[in-house]
Amino acid sequence: MKKIYTILAGSLMSLLSFAGNGYDDGKLSITYAGNDDIRISVDGREYTDRDNTVMIDNLRPGYHTIKVYKKRGRNGWDIFGSNKNRDKVLYSNSMYIKSRTFVDVMINRFGRAFVDERRIDNNGRWDDDRYDDDRYDDDYDHNNDDWNNGNGNVIRDRDFTAAKEQIKKEWFENTRLTIAKQIIDANNFRSSQVKEIVNLFTFENNKLEIAKYAYRKTVDKQNYFQVNDAFTFSSSKDELARFIRDNR
């Protein structure tokens, strides 16, 4: 009985973490651009696609696992029923859904994904402009002063805290690198925030790799010297300086 209760409780918590119905919820669209028969799974739950497209509303902010399978055999089924174990994984990744954001994922036939983000307004609609060009209402995020100063869409403080926790919980630095790059791809940062991310890594080469990777997504590049404080060796600081000079 206790085991059954534990399973039911775990299923309920999984459901609650997946779908919400709140002000901060996001939307996710997944489209496959090829002609193959596919199946799409988000957080372990399969969705029936319509013309190779799945639209999911009311997603809680945070990471969601997306998997797209290319069906094998005749429509992915055999005479004995489901033949899912033979399906080929075409795309598998963890996608960070920001609050009140519509994320559109387009996956080509080679398994490469193209991601577009757009802000959801108070009426549940998203702007026609790209997320990076969007303009927030002044009262949307009082903690994000950089936006009003013309520095671009900097990640919100609470989202940044959640992102750092997501990186820190990974045991292996290679996995941390992968997660950090996904977060960097989806956001803009201040130099001080980049320094905090770099400090989450132990090995100097990984610190340097992330510092270089985040430079293009930093809104106050004139302050990037702050990132130097995260390095142990002067050679790393020198290499970062050369990288910045070559990428201005």
How many β strands by DSSP?
A: 10
Quaternary state of this entry equals single chain
Give the overall shape: elongated
Terminal residue distance: 64 Å
- Main sheet: which strands, in order across? 4-1-9-10
Percent of residues in beta strands? 15-25%
Ranges where pLDDT stays below 50 over 5 or more residues in a row are: 1-20, 75-81, 126-151
For the sheet with most strands, the description reads: 4 strands, mixed
- How many helical stretches? 7
- The whole-angstrom Rg is 21 Å
Helix/strand structural class: alpha+beta
Instruction: Output mean pLDDT.
Output: 76
Instruction: Please estimate the helix content.
Output: 25-40%
- Total domain count: 2
- SSE order, as H and E? HEEEEEEEEEEHHHHHH
Query: If you consult CATH, what is the topology of the largest domain?
Result: Immunoglobulin-like
